[in-house]
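Fold these two proteins, one after the other.
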Amino acid sequence: MVRNYTGDPLTEKKRIRWTTETLQLEASKFSSRKDFYALSSAAYSAASRRGILDSICSHMSSLHHAWTNEELRLEALKYQNKKLFRECSPKAYDAAYSRQVLEEICSHMEVLRRSWTLDELKDLALQYQTKRDFRREQPAAYGYCENNKLLSQVCGHMTRLITDWNLDLLKEEASKYKTRGDFQNSSNKAYNTALRLGLLDEICGHMSYVRTYWTDEMIIQLASKYKTRKEFSQAEPAAYSTLIRRPHLVEQAFGHMDVLLTNWTIERLQTEALKYQTRAEFDRGSPSAYNSALNRNLLDEICGHMVSRMPSDNDAIYVWKTDLFFNGFPVYKFGVTSKRLGKMRIEQVSKDSGISAEIILLEQVSGSAYKLEKQLKKLGVNPKFTSFNGSTEFRALTDEELEYAVETIKNWEG
């Protein structure tokens, strides 16, 4: 599909003046906020600025439910024992177990069995291959074993959880999950090991990819549901990861949260550091751990996997295509980088924005790359992306405008 083309690729496009009624009509075309933002970002941004997103998006479905601790407590109150809670509300049960609040919200429940014989415990334990599964599925029996120092007797057959992950074991572990989010939440050690070794793409090829573009408003709204950074990071790892790459949001998102004092062992510091790709993200996302490592001269040891922010030579221009459309036309990204650094800048912007990148051109230029970028930004229509580094260089282009941009780059001597 090609819109009317004037012959002058630098012609400015007429801007739409959105009213509440037209915004309501535009929003009614979409079933989720993600689609609304991706396919009509101008309307989305206008609605966000006016504070009417909630009202015009009330018909939209949510991709998932983010349990707050208060919601978990209310959900648990519906059940008389943990067995019923686990069977009738498994997602809430798993969320409570992962956040280590299960005992707290289940304190009102009756204990189905208070005494166990050793043979009964052995028979029960034989149903499980690891202590983790035994503890999760049979918390009362596991607790009895732990309190009476019987774990070594009833769990002797169990497989020790593997910590020395190799490629084959990581592939096997990843095959259990349908999305990277599930993989990260359910098998964090394996996920972080694969992330550190650069193996995620290789072992997650079978997984479906659900991409969410996190606006500032969405992140702030989610963060407001949690009392601590730990709760937020465990319940919403994707939103949390995006937040720490946006320094301007950190104070606003975390300002209401309680500060928890943690006894940072070297092992805990190593595990915490693996969540981040750069030291700056580590400092913003977990300042207490970062400062503990800094004071003990451990940063070099625990940050060895992190990416160094190398300076750019600013001698190259890139064009990449996104998977988004604006006003019916594909969206592209222009930018200045370094020929020496290759795809690093492209990959970083793609990661920060959550927008996929298909490289069209990466060309070293003889003249000023910044002057060329300024010229290219006059093309097409600006979809008005915001809130991440590099957001202002996206443009919706016709085929003719893209062709003009590529030829301009190749012939640039300015």
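Now the second one:
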Amino acid sequence: MTLLLFGQLAQSGPGLAAAIGIEIEVVGGRQQHAARLRSTYTAQAYGTLDLAFSALLTDHYFSCDAVRDAEAFSRHVPTYNYEFTEPSASNPDPLMPLGAFHGLELIYLFQSNLVMPESMDALSGAQLKLSEQMIRYWGRFAATGQPNSFLPPYWPRFNARYPSSLNLSSKGLSVFGSVAFRKDHQCAVFDPN
């Protein structure tokens, strides 16, 4: 049984990309790919160069790889896929404000700041409700191999016919398909097939 996890960097602060001299280089003769990355991840499209760089890294290293992995795993084992989009209320990184950064969901699964830096704030009421739902899903998955119980909301199984995933946020849980997800995360830029 497989439960795939992926998070999303939702935002970054001013100056980071410029401070470390971000430039999309042409590597291995892939000028068209580099040009496509430069035209997709722009300060105009994302608000700042830092947000564009954050989105590029998130899309490439987390989001698009995760949905490809879910597609591959789902051909062999039951797969339940999610995207955690609850932004951090506090910021453990002094250089770059982070949104829903990789690993942030651990606070929700363990209801403890021991898994994160001391600067993390306590969970709000809505975030505690999200945490309790996540704990139910993970506990049920560990016990039975699937995350659902008689309590809603239902987490659909990811498969080739219905490639659905669950968005985890204190604003509400929602189901989304991989076509919309791939579009939101610019996956065609990284995997043109």
